[in-house]
Automatic annotation (TrEMBL):
SUPFAM superfamilies: GIY-YIG endonuclease. Residues 203-289 form the GIY-YIG domain. InterPro entries: GIY-YIG_endonuc, GIY-YIG_endonuc_sf. This is GIY-YIG catalytic domain-containing protein. Signal peptide: none annotated.
């Protein structure tokens, strides 16, 4: 079965549909998009409401956009069918003065460039107003197709057959949470965690590492209070400066978080602090890092 068969079932001519296969090469951007698709669909829709010149031309000549996002394993997940209306051309100020657009730039590409830099390259794009097609709403995040390959992400439906692989019972785009030994998160990812990731981190207490990717400096901390690791990391990323004395002059936008060790939920505070001190000694973050105590 092909996705095109579903279009035919709903009497939508393939020649009116553009296939938008979102698959950024940057793995951080791809994971951020999957989290936004689940937790902040408003920001994801902002992301897909403008396009580079060649894809923009394709979409201008189509009445509908079928949106997909690449996921690990070589598949693409269906995110919705939209009727599109051509809107205004966006200026640099349109990008920077709109809170939603600015937040989207920070969440998706903030690890690469600041919103001001990204907006300078995006000025002049046409805004497409996207309205969901109700007939396909039940398949959103559940329909999985095979990635047709290739780098071009805006395709013509009549020339790009999409093989349907499965229709999942529950809709989810974000990948399963990695093992704690492999988990690393940016500030933007912490601010838009999938619900199951957030629940897990809320139940975990332990010793964590912050690396400031701006210069490689490291900070060791511990989490054992309200909301455990989730609560502590959210404190670190809530503002535009770090929350401890050592991090107060640093921008959390360049922080990357990882777990050094998990401790028992019943561990006493003094036991957790002893483990934290052990990691500070082993990583030498007092003399050659950001730990002042």
């Amino acid at each position: 079965m092909l996705f095109q068969d579903l279009l035919r079932l709903h009497r939508l001519p393939q020649t009116e549909v553009a296939l938008c296969l979102h698959k950024p090469s940057d793995p951080i951007a791809r994971r951020s998009l999957s989290m936004l698709a689940d937790e902040r669909p408003d920001l994801f829709d902002i992301y897909q409401s403008t396009h580079a010149p060649a894809p923009e031309t394709t979409l201008r000549n189509r009445a509908c956009l079928a949106s997909f996002l690449a996921v690990p394993g070589g598949d693409v997940v269906f995110l919705g069918l939209f009727q599109r209306e051509i809107g205004p051309v966006l200026s640099i100020n349109d990008w920077l003065d709109d809170p939603g657009r600015r937040e989207m730039l920070d969440r998706v590409d903030g690890h690469i460039a600041r919103p001001e830099e990204r907006a300078a390259r995006l000025g002049g794009r046409t805004l497409f107003h996207l309205r969901r097609h109700d007939a396909f709403a039940d398949l959103e995040k559940r329909l999985v197709c095979q990635d047709p390959g290739g780098r071009t992400y805006m395709r013509l439906a009549e020339t790009t057959p999409l093989q349907v692989l499965e229709i999942r019972r529950h809709g989810q785009v974000a990948p399963p949470m990695p093992d704690w030994t492999e988990l690393t998160l940016t500030r933007r990812e912490i601010q838009s965690l999938p619900r199951d990731w957030a629940i897990t981190l809320r139940n975990w207490r332990g010793i964590y590492l912050i690396v400031d990717e701006k210069d490689g400096q490291r900070y060791v901390g511990s989490a054992y209070g309200v909301d455990n690791l989730l609560g502590r990391w959210q404190q670190h990323t809530a503002g535009d400066r770090g929350v401890t004395r050592e991090l107060a002059h640093r921008d959390p936008a360049t922080f990357r978080f990882a777990i050094l060790e998990l401790v028992s939920p019943t561990a006493l505070p003094e036991e957790v602090l002893a483990r934290e001190n052990s990691w500070k000694l082993r990583l030498d973050t007092r003399r050659n890092g950001l730990n002042g105590n």
